[in-house]
Task: structure prediction
Amino acid sequence: MKQGVMLNAYPDSMGGKLENIVTLLREPELRGAVSSFYILPSMFHTDLDRGFSVQDYELEETLVKQEDLKHLQEMGIDLKLDFILNHASVLSPQFQDLLKNGNRSEYKDFFIDWNQFWDGYGNLNEQGYIEPDEELIKDMFFRKQGLPILMVEFPDGRSVPYWNTFYQKVWREHGKTKYLGQMDLNVKSELVWRFYDETLKKLASYGAAIVRLDAFAYTSKEVGARNFFNEPETWEILERLTKLGEQYHLIFLPEIHASYGEKRYEEVAKRGYITYDFFLPGLIIDAIENKNGDTLVRWGKEVIEKNISTVNMLGCHDGIPLLDLKGLIPEERIQGLIDTIVNRGGYIKNLHGQKNIYYQVNSTFYSALGEDDKKMLVARALQLFMPGKPQIWYLDLFAGKNDHEAVRKAGKDGHKEINRTNLDTAYILENADRDVVKRQIEMIAFRNTCSVFKKAARIEFTSYDTILKIKWSYKSESAELTVDFEKMEYTINEKLA
Result:
């Protein structure tokens, strides 16, 4: 995995389509600033959840053309792409074939018929789906209220419940029920594994070097299990998938949110996979607001000592993680972060409506910091000097503010839209000369090109009072960041051969 900087955006995030982002990356200020690009899955044919409900993995040519991907390769920029391992859209060819042909479909076992799965383990209710025995589901991890099902209407008039962990949309149109949904795949089907292989081959053909395994911890389904990171089944799925990916020279990044105390990140790393540093965004805000970098240092040292390979970030297409911090900082400090960000215009994202179980806060990172330029620059400097491959959310780069109008338009459960504003070319050009933008770009370019930042480098941390220092050294060269949290200032000193 390249150690350089990774841009993160939707294909239409900057200028309306990928072609415009390619043009932007060729500008003198950004040329050579990034070595990787994480393009979110609206680059494929999708219909729901801003790209994460994939119909198929062909290019959405209104946004992305094959020549755009070729141009990125010619610029030396490799790609990180999503593989939505757990589910596919109702509108996928496989589910549409199932709807058309019912039990005669070759895909009848491709998805999970809820009633077949729970047959013998519950009672059929008046709505036509089995309510599992309470003892079997009391510890199950649900992402939304109620059972994770979508009632699907077949041409013969039957309504059949299918497993649906994530998003669904149901409405009436011209007297008929319409629906969209992210339908869970049956990993026990060999046809699903054939689909996995074909998809990985296609992603590699687009120029993918890293494949993010979206929601992989939900793929294993077993009666009586938690159905989130079932063991050993989840590891067996990941190992089998890894063997497929090796054919196409792919590196996998399994996406998993879990509290620090569960040590899931450590398990993933021990098995040789890179992992997301979902702790860093909250830790950086905590350090800035409390003017103390001790916990940040403790986490950085752990990453190094345990040889944890990470992709780190500030903002991303989701919210700022909070669940992950449990066990790393005290509960009252986590609550303090929540209160601060909400008071600055953010929204709390709770797990299936339970107010006492927090998941993330939806906000731009800039707004989470009180739209303070000095704080934003300190946050970026810290991210770039922490261990791991830095991933840069496009909106953070341009100091994007909370988009409350987008949330209002999105309606119920539309909190994520607060941090997904598409920037047009005029906005980008208008804001390119802002100091908070220019200095971020300078830092990013430095991080991407400076020879000190490599896997073999030694990283040292020093923290005292309101001062934090992070130093990278390789042979006779070094780069050192000094942050003064009291003054909210930073300096970068480099010593090159």
